[in-house]
Amino acid sequence: MVTGDVKLIGSWASVFVMRARIALNLKSIRYEFLQETYGTKSELLLKSNPVHKKIPVLIHDDKPVCESNIIVQYIDEAWSSYGPSILPSQPYDRAIARFWAAYVDDKWFIALRSILTAGGEEEKKAAIAEVEERTDHLEKAFIECSNGKPFFNGDHIGYLDIALGSFLGWWKVVELDANHILLDETKTPSLFKWAERFCNDPDVKPLMPETAKLAEFARKLFPKPQA
Amino acid sequence: MAERSEEVKLLGMWASPFSRRVEIALTLKGLPYEFSEQDIANKSPLLLQSNPVHKMIPVLLHNGKPISESLVILEYIDDTWQHNQILPQDPYDKAIARFWARFVDEQIYVTAMKVVGKVGEERDAAVEATRDLLKLMEKELVGKDFLGGESLGFVDIVATLVAFWLMRTEEVVGVKVVPVEMFPEIHRWVKNLLDVDVIKKCIPPEDEHLNYIRARMDSLKLKSV
Predict the structure, then answer these.
(1) What ipTM was predicted for this assembly?
(2) Are residues B76 and B99 in the same domain?
(3) pTM
């Protein structure tokens, strides 16, 4: 089976890059990983994603694809006969998966990130409350989508698992930073168990960064203001 | 054997670009649907029940099952009724179409809203920023009749937001955000759109729409006094 020339421009610490890599792993696609150096943008990145200048960028036979969720769908469609389906097969289930993936990025992630960028205690508390509320929505989404199966996508990981699960490394880092549990075994038991299963998936495990290494990187990215 | 009737209902709003784009898609596919005009200030139980997460229009109800978020709805419509395809078939072309649709909604729309919502220097900055984004769209149109190529596609439907909302606010705001000298391709594209029956049928009538925009802007000004 000829997959063509596949490159991925990214970084070990990026949630969005991880999504693309999980998808490539699911399809057993071999690719060249081009690691960007933090603080600089390579010529290739600027040429391949002139609009946003952001990672990840998938380059398939010299044609660039940008935006992580778009890349994951592209991987599913370009290599549809390889490995398991990443998107569900029924249109309605696909719509639900897309809806929640958009929710993760537009609402949940923004709230999570605002914990790290919070100016003071009040702001932080408000951000934490928002994340808890939104995580609660995701717990309900999991119950609705999984239908008793181990993953949002059913028997094996799929689009929505990848969209949310890629955050698990950062989720832990933000918990440590906030000194507050954000994935609670008693409040969101289904998500809690799903998270463990997701992290142990063979296509995910080698990609999940070590918490300590990520926390150190987070301190660089989100420096604390001097007292 | 009788066909089970397909019940398609759209909870929408006549002046919303997000609602209208769904109507364009349904009309392109020749799908009969029931339109239910929603009062955003006084949300109906059906809307709240169908979109409990965002409580926003548009919501498509297909045989009672709700789908929310206009881009998700458009893809659902294309997945479910596969004639007259809106998205390209080729995975790469599809990825490009999705990219530009996101660009319109996440970049152009967000920035253009500031043109309407701000005044003075902040408005000037918003106009500049919107123009910078539109220059990318202008480039995409060179040598093409539509953003989708030879015929209307996904990105055109999404970008009606630019053609019939952003460009219509110019009259009301009194600023030529998209002057023809700077954006000849976009102006040519708008003319092409207006030649398409489905578009003519599905966009809000101009006079009513302008009055609506004016009224909304006045109420915004009143709020900031």
Answers:
(1) 0.95
(2) no
(3) 0.95
Q: Which positions in chain A touch B80 (Cβ < 8 Å)?
A: 91
Give the type of residue at A123: E
pLDDT tens track for A178-219: 999 999 999 999 999 999 999 999 999 999 999 999 999 999
Between A67, A77, A99, which is nearest B68 by CB?
A99
Set of chain A residues whose Cβ sits within 8 Å of the Cβ of B132: none
Hey, is the C-beta of B18 within 8 angstroms of any chain A C-beta? no
CA-to-CA dists, residue A158 to A15, A134, A224, B19, B49, angstroms: 16, 21, 36, 29, 27
Distance CA A188, CA A184 (A): 6
pLDDT tens digits along B111-149: 999 888 888 899 999 999 999 999 999 999 999 999 999
CATH of A91-221, picked from 1.20.1050.10, 1.10.10.60, 3.40.50.300, 3.40.50.11460, is: 1.20.1050.10
Q: For B205, which DSSP code?
A: P
Q: Does B62 lie at the interface with A, CB-CB under 8 angstroms? A: yes
Out of A51, A63, A78, the one facing B103 most closely (by C-beta) is A51
What is residue B180's DSSP assignment?
T
